[in-house]
Design goal:
559 residues; alpha/beta; 7-stranded mixed β-sheet; 6-stranded antiparallel β-sheet; 42% helix; binds zinc ion
């Protein structure tokens, strides 16, 4: 059997042991041959997907290609229809004369190669790549191609009369297939790139589309000004705005499903000198909505402290940090942990960011007089056990929240402060008597998001003396810095994780708060009690090679 021979080859090359081979074969046998040898080797953690694929290439005498580090020829990609590529996990990557180079995860599958040969009329040269690299390349190359096709067809239908800015309101143009497709494709691409926001910005001669990934804006594409009006009108239409009104800001929303995930898409339109600027915020609903508290990226000691805080039946738990530091995600995760069928949970938010099952969520509406404070007062008449207040934005809201906690409710909320200890001082500054803060506060979690270094291209080096000081360590160690490769869009980072600083208000800390202690006094007592500062947390991540010194400085020094 072919598979057995691959196994023997790996053993003969010293890449796996005989014992590992027997384990793989046993799992394969158990699956009645439905699992491939390579999949099992990777699944059992014996070899990485890349190493296995390289070894397979060696055995079959086929070239191995790292799809992330080569330029894929778009002309070659288009030779193979998307459906065929997805069905067989192949992607055409280069054309040399009459020969088409095709990356596949199974170069001995002659039927597939024959299929491609027939449909393209070209000779196929197979090269080997990992399944995940091929799937990623398919997603990236075909979706960008979709945008190109859409823009081509728009240009061919409207591009010829570019005498002046396109007069758009004719409904057929806004409803025309290419514009509808363009709007959908932009949201799709942004979501697949893990973007949180899309900015569609009109300038004098073109419109720039940027997306926010890991907190930074990156350019997605530029489109012709001629398309701008039709695109914004389309987006305003589906998000329920008045399309005739272009002089005042408007807000709206719509839903779109991408790859099985339903997205809640918030749209805001702002008139600028060159037309309306559209900002789209992508909020996902459904399966990825609620993170568990174990998935917040907390260190073990922070997690233990957070968990013990959530077990206190009444009082106030605050999450603090600047905008975009993941406060709401933490609050929602906490709610998910404590919202049981036998308790009544009510939230008041602005806006309601994610719909959660089994929880009553109220939306603040300033215009209608439904302020945080007003909403909170009526909520407290609804017999709640747990109240989540989106933000303690003013003294009145903070006061009602603290009083609710003292009268036996569990109150969760957020506040805009730099660190955990200054939150306490801030509440007192807002006019809440310090004895009330001391009695009600269970604890404060300060948090920030830091970017995670791209594992494929991060570069090791020794830390300097100055950096040792920043990290609070005595001597130089190996750290990593961002570099940039195709896998991370040349940013050097992939994804973000959170760092936390938790002050648990124990009897000792509470007595300092009640005595009007300073931020430093509170911090000192908290540290004695096991609190690790944000900087300690960031330092640990740098030392573990997960983030960079730049990120440590950005997240913990500049606020
Ligand atoms: Zn990279």
């Amino acid at each position: 059997m072919r598979n057995e021979r691959i196994g023997d080859y790996l053993v003969s090359q010293g890449l796996i042991t005989d014992e590992q081979l027997q384990r793989v074969l046993a799992v394969q046998k158990e699956s009645n041959g439905t699992k491939k040898f390579g999949d099992v080797v990777v699944e059992l953690g014996i070899m990485s997907e890349v190493n296995f694929t390289k070894a397979l290439a060696g055995k079959l005498r086929v070239q191995y290609v790292d799809l992330d580090s080569i330029d894929i020829d778009t002309e070659a990609v288009q030779k193979v229809p998307e459906a065929l590529a997805r069905k067989h996990t192949v992607i055409a990557i280069a054309i040399t004369g009459k020969r088409l180079t095709v990356a596949t995860n199974d170069p001995v599958n002659f039927i597939v190669l024959e299929d491609i040969k027939v449909s393209t009329g070209m000779d196929t040269v197979p090269v080997l790549a990992t399944t995940s690299a091929i799937n990623k390349a398919i997603g990236k190359n075909y979706s960008m191609q979709n945008v190109d096709n859409v823009l081509d067809s728009i240009n061919s239908t409207v591009g010829n009369d570019l005498g002046g800015p396109m007069d758009d309101e004719s409904n057929d143009r806004v409803e025309s297939a290419p514009i509808v497709k363009l709007a959908t494709t932009i949201v799709e691409n942004a979501f697949r790139a893990d973007a949180t926001d899309i900015h569609i910005e009109p300038f004098k001669t073109y419109t720039r589309i940027r997306i926010r990934v890991n907190g930074d804006l990156v350019e997605l594409m530029n489109i012709s000004s001629a398309v701008h009006s039709a695109l914004t009108t389309r987006l305003k239409l589906i998000s329920g705005m008045n399309i005739a009104e272009k002089r005042i800001p408007q807000d709206g929303r719509f839903t779109q499903t991408v790859d099985g995930t339903t997205l809640d898409v918030r749209v805001s339109a702002l008139p600028t000198v060159h037309g309306e600027k559209i900002v789209i915020r992508i909020l996902s609903t459904g399966q990825i909505a609620l993170r568990k508290i174990t998935d917040l990226g907390m260190s073990d000691y922070n997690y233990a402290m957070f968990e013990s805080m959530l077990r206190v039946p009444h009082g106030v738990i605050l999450v603090t940090g600047p905008t975009g530091s993941g406060k709401t995600t933490t609050l929602y995760a906490a709610l998910g942990e404590i919202a049981k069928p036998n308790v009544n949970v009510i939230t008041v938010e602005d806006p309601v960011e994610k719909a959660i099952d089994g929880i009553n969520q109220c939306q603040v509406n300033q215009k209608a007089g439904m302020t945080f404070a007003a909403a909170l007062r009526s909520i407290l008449r609804q017999d709640p056990d747990i109240v989540m207040i989106g933000e303690m934005r003013d003294a009145e809201t903070a006061d009602i929240g603290i009083r609710a906690a003292i009268t036996g409710h569990l109150v969760l909320s957020t506040l805009h402060t730099n660190d955990a200890a200054s939150t306490v001082v801030r509440l007192v500054d807002m006019g809440i008597p310090s004895y009330m803060v001391a009695t009600s506060l269970i604890g404060v979690i300060a948090q920030r998001l830091v970017k995670v270094l791209c594992p494929s291209c991060k570069k090791p080096r020794m830390s300097t003396e100055e950096e040792n000081e920043l990290m609070g360590i005595p001597s130089s160690i190996q750290i990593y810095e961002p570099c940039g490769c195709p896998e991370c869009n040349n940013t050097g980072y992939r994804g973000r994780t959170a760092i936390h600083e938790i002050v648990h208000c124990t009897a000792k800390v509470s007595s300092i708060i009640a005595a009007n202690g300073s931020k430093e006094d509170i911090e000192k007592a908290a540290k004695a009690n096991g609190t690790r500062l944000l900087r300690d947390n960031a330092s640990e991540l740098v030392q573990a090679g997960e983030t960079s010194i730049d990120e440590l400085v950005r997240a913990t020094f500049s606020v």
